[in-house]
Amino acid sequence: MSVARLVASFGGCGFSPLAPGTVGSLAALACGLLLVGHPMILGAAILACCAVGYLATARVSGGEDFGWIVIDEVAGMWIALMPLALGAGRVDPWHPDRIGILWLLLAFLLFRLFDITKPGPVGWFDRRHDALGIMGDDVVAGVLAAGGLTLLRYLVAL
């Protein structure tokens, strides 16, 4: 397996026989737990994932969004986790409590909702047939999930 294929499949997670996008998102959530306590590192990981993911996707996709390419889900999932790493009420994954686990679960569900339903700009990127479209739809889905999560956390804090 080439390095680009290994990156694009997030270490082979994308080759799951069932729901590779969901498996990739769950793997990203598990890895994200290590990063969510460190917002600067999470931010750097998101940027690195987007850059490396774009290059790997451009190399292996040929413009086709194969189901096994899940590095885009990793970038989107980590973006969705960013509100939990910032500001008041940060979620500490090393001291899990019910509320923290619910926020993590909600981040995952919101990201998957926007990734699967592809509203507005998510759908626009999804209709592109290039590496920017493959990475872009999940990045935008992650941004929408992060926005939704931030709004919900604000409303709960009122």
Automatic annotation (TrEMBL):
Keywords of the record: Cell inner membrane, Cell membrane, Hydrolase, Lipid degradation, Lipid metabolism, Magnesium, Membrane, Metal-binding, Phospholipid degradation, Phospholipid metabolism, Transmembrane, Transmembrane helix
Source domain of life: Bacteria
InterPro entries in UniProt: PgpA, PgpA-like_sf, YutG/PgpA
Domain YutG/PgpA: 7-152
E.C. number(s) listed in UniProt: 3.1.3.27
Membrane topology per record: Multi-pass membrane protein
GO biological process: one example: phosphatidylglycerol biosynthetic process
Cofactor: Mg(2+)
Main subcellular location of this protein, as a coarse class: membrane
Pathway involvement of the protein, from the record: Phospholipid metabolism; phosphatidylglycerol biosynthesis; phosphatidylglycerol from CDP-diacylglycerol: step 2/2
SUPFAM superfamilies named in the record: YutG-like
Residues spanning the membrane: 37-56, 98-114, 135-156
Leader peptide range in chain numbering: none
GO cellular component annotations of the record: plasma membrane
Pfam families reported in the protein's UniProt record: PgpA
Catalysed conversion reaction: a 1,2-diacyl-sn-glycero-3-phospho-(1'-sn-glycero-3'-phosphate) + H2O = a 1,2-diacyl-sn-glycero-3-phospho-(1'-sn-glycerol) + phosphate
Name of the protein in its database record: Phosphatidylglycerophosphatase A
Top-level taxonomy: Bacteria, Pseudomonadati, Pseudomonadota, Alphaproteobacteria, Acetobacterales
